[in-house]
Amino acid sequence: MIPIVLTVAGSDPSGGAGIQADLKTIHRFQAYGAAVMTLITAQNTRGVERVEVLSAELVRAQLDCLLDDMTPLAAKTGALGSPDVVHEVGLVAKAASFPFVVDPVWTPTRGERLSTDDLGEALRRDLIPFATLVTPNAEEASQLAGLPVRTVEEAGEAARTIASLGANAVLVTGGHLEGAARGTDLLFYEGVVRELPARLVAEGDFHGTGCALSAAIASRLAFGDDIPTAVARAKAWLEGALAHAFAVGKGAKPVNHLWDVEHKP
Is 264 left (phi over 0), alpha (psi -120 to 50) or beta? Predict the structure, then answer.
C-alpha cells in the first residue's frame, strides 16, 4: 500500500516551494501526497509580491474533511500564515497518531512576509510541543530559540532550546551558517547533538530547499524510517537535487526534484 503524506502549507505558483514543491517531493519518494492550503501567494523565482492568508476556520475545515476520509502515515507543515492557523494545526498535531514534521516558515528569502504577525510565539506554544521533528534554518532557529545562530556550536544550542519546548527532535539546517560551517546540519535527537556535514555544497541562489527537505523527511518517516535515517536519506537526496538544479525563471533556481530519476544509468 502506498503511504499517504500530508502537507499543510502555502501555495507557490512558480512551483519551486510550498505545496507544489512538497507534492513533487512526496511523489518522488513514491508516496501519495495530500495537501491542505493555508495561504495563497503571488510570487515567482524573484520573490513574493503578495500574500493572502486563508481563515483558520477554512484551514481546519480542510483538515477535518480530509482526515475523515484518509489516514496519513506522516505530515509536514510549511508556511501557516497566522497564529490562529498555527493553533488549529497544533490541535491536529496533538491528536495525530502519525509523525508531524514542522518546517517553521514565516519569512521568505525574498519579498513579502508570509504572515502579518510574528508567528514565533504561536509556533513555540501551539505546534512545536507536538512535533516529531522541527526543521528550522539558522535564521528561523535564532528567532525560535532567542539566540544568535551563526556557528555549528550556536546551532546545536538553538536545537537543544527548541527541543526543550517539547519536540522529539530538531534539525537546524546549515545553509545560512558562516564560514566552513555552511552546509553542516545539526540534529538534536535523544539528548545528543549530531553534526551532519554536507558531502558537497552547491553554489548559487536556490528556492524551496527547506520545503523539499522537510517533505522528503516526512516521506521517509511514512515508510517507517527512524528520524536519523529519514534525515540522512533526505539530506543526501537534497544535495543531489541542488547540484542538478536548473533555472526556470529569471531568479532563484528551484531544486531538481527528479534528479536521481533522470540520472539513473
Answer: beta
8 A C-beta contact, residue 159 and residue 141: yes
pLDDT in tens, 232-246: 999 999 999 999 999
How far is residue 198's CA from residue 132's CA, in Å, rounded to a whole number? 23
Query: Taking the domains of the chain in order of start, what are their residue ranges?
Result: 4-262
Class level of CATH domain 4-262:
alpha beta
Give the tens place of pLDDT for each residue, 66-110: 999 999 999 999 999 999 999 999 999 999 999 999 999 876 556
Closest CA to 184 of 153, 163, 146, 228: 153
Q: How far is CA 148 from CA 59, 80, 121, 151, 178, in A?
A: 33, 24, 17, 9, 12
3 state SS of 10: strand
